[in-house]
Amino acid sequence: MGWKIRDVREDQDMTQKELAKKLNVKRSTYTMWELGDVNFPIEKIVEIAKLFHTNVDYLLDLTTNKEEVLYPEQVDNALIGRKLKEFRTKTNKTQKEFAYLLGIRQSTYFYYEEGRNRIPTEKLILLAKTYRIPVSKFCGGKKKAKESITTR
Question: Which of 32, 61, 87, 151 has its CA 20 to 30 A from that of 130?
Answer without folding.
Answer: 32
